[in-house]
């Protein structure tokens, strides 16, 4: 679940939106990281999600951030990587539990149990030193207010209306389109994983812009979410393949080959599905989508608030029914 407020608000200037979202996310994340009543794996997972949300926000404001973009993006990337070892092992365990029924049938229950044993052992090794893990979480939590302050201390001069985000919106869509083509051309797992990152970026951008055009963007958000899950499963299967390949002491050559064959077959089906869903998102020109959003931004930005519309409606009903000859601005 996202921290409430991950959205543009009518009447709020873009620079204020950027600062508010970063501050709210980092404050909430710092509290969460220090909450030992929540298990470490959940804290790591939520923190990495927050960092991805912020990096997507930074990409949307890439143009006005200028050189500061690289600095901030690198910081959140490196902070997330510092927790990657903990998150990766938890993700693998979850991916084994989420194997499709068909893959489970092809692999066999005995092999699935072996996979669980191997990954559970890896998890125990990663989390063996609990205090070291807590120290790492505390170290990151202590840096979060500083990271938020860096953004708030920037000059707001370059953040001017929709132009602040137009380049970032186009860039992300264009990069996603290229990533889809590269993945489909190479059929390489790493390329599909890169495509998923760009899909997630655009998914976050659509959520940020949701209030501009709720009905249409809700549909787009769902399609992007579906595509992200498809590509996420593809990546999870690749991670499992790598674990099997590196566990020759646990799996026989024939057993490893059986697992790999089932996982690759599933990946190929997911690739076809991802292509079909991806074409719904990337069929149009990124610039055309940005122009449409610019029009929606104008309508949303300068339309009365719901409370003001209600007041105007009440005033209108209290007047006599004599039509006015003066033309009113809608």
Give an account of the 3D structure.
Mean pLDDT is 89; it is low at 307-330. The chain is an all-alpha fold. α2 (40-60) packs across α10 and α5 packs antiparallel against α7. The two termini are 38 Å apart. The chain is built from 14 helices and no strands. The longest helix is centred in the C-terminal third of the chain and has 32 residues, at 214-245. It has helices at residues 14-33, 40-60, 62-65, 67-81, 84-97, 101-107, 109-126, 130-152, 163-186, 189-208, 214-245, 253-282, 286-302, 306-318.
List keywords for this structure.
disordered C terminus, single chain, 14 helices, 330 residues, mainly alpha
Describe how the helices and strands are arranged.
Layout: H1 14-33, H2 40-60, H3 62-65, H4 67-81, H5 84-97, H6 101-107, H7 109-126, H8 130-152, H9 163-186, H10 189-208, H11 214-245, H12 253-282, H13 286-302, H14 306-318
Helix pairs in contact: 1-2, 1-8, 2-4, 2-5, 2-10, 5-7, 5-11, 9-10, 9-12, 9-13, 10-11, 11-12
The N- and C-terminal alpha carbons lie at a distance of 38 Å
Q: Main β-sheet, in a few words?
A: none
Radius of gyration of CA atoms, rounded to a whole number: 24 Å
Total strand count, please?
A: 0
State the low-pLDDT regions, or none. Answer: 307-330
Q: What is the overall number of helices?
A: 14
Provide the structure class.
mainly alpha
Q: What is the succession of H and E elements?
A: HHHHHHHHHHHHHH
Helix % is over 70%
Strand content: under 5%
Average per-residue pLDDT, rounded, comes to 89
Shape, please?
A: globular
């Amino acid at each position: 679940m996202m921290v409430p407020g991950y959205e543009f608000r009518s009447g709020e200037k873009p620079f204020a939106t950027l600062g508010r979202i970063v501050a709210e996310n980092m404050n909430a994340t710092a509290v969460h990281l220090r909450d030992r009543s929540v298990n470490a794996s959940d804290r790591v997972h939520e923190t990495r999600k927050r960092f991805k949300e912020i990096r997507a926000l930074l990409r949307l404001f890439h143009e006005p951030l200028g050189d500061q973009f690289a600095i901030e993006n690198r910081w959140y990337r490196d902070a997330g990587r510092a927790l990657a070892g903990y998150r990766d092992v938890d993700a693998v365990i979850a991916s084994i539990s989420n194997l499709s029924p068909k893959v489970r049938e092809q692999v066999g229950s005995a092999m699935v149990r072996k996979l669980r044993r191997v990954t559970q052992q890896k998890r125990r090794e990663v989390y063996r030193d609990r205090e070291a893990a807590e120290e790492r979480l505390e170290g990151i939590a202590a840096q979060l207010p500083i990271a938020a302050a860096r953004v708030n201390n920037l000059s707001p001069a370059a953040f001017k209306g929709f132009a602040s985000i137009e380049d970032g919106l186009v860039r992300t869509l264009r990069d996603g389109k290229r990533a889809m083509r590269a993945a489909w051309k190479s059929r390489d797992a790493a390329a599909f994983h890169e495509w998923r990152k760009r899909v997630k970026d655009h998914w976050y951008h659509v959520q940020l812009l949701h209030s501009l055009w709720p009905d249409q963007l809700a549909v787009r958000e769902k399609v992007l979410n579906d595509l992200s899950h498809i590509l996420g499963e593809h990546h999870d299967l690749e991670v499992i393949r790598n674990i099997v390949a590196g566990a020759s002491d646990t799996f026989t050559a024939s057993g490893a080959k059986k697992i790999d064959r089932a996982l690759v077959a599933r990946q190929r089906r997911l690739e076809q599905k991802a292509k079909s869903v991806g074409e719904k998102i990337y069929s149009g020109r990124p610039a055309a989508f940005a122009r449409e959003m610019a029009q929606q931004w104008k309508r949303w930005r300068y339309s009365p608030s719901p409370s003001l519309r209600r007041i105007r409606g009440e005033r209108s009903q209290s007047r006599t029914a004599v039509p006015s000859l003066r033309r009113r601005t809608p």
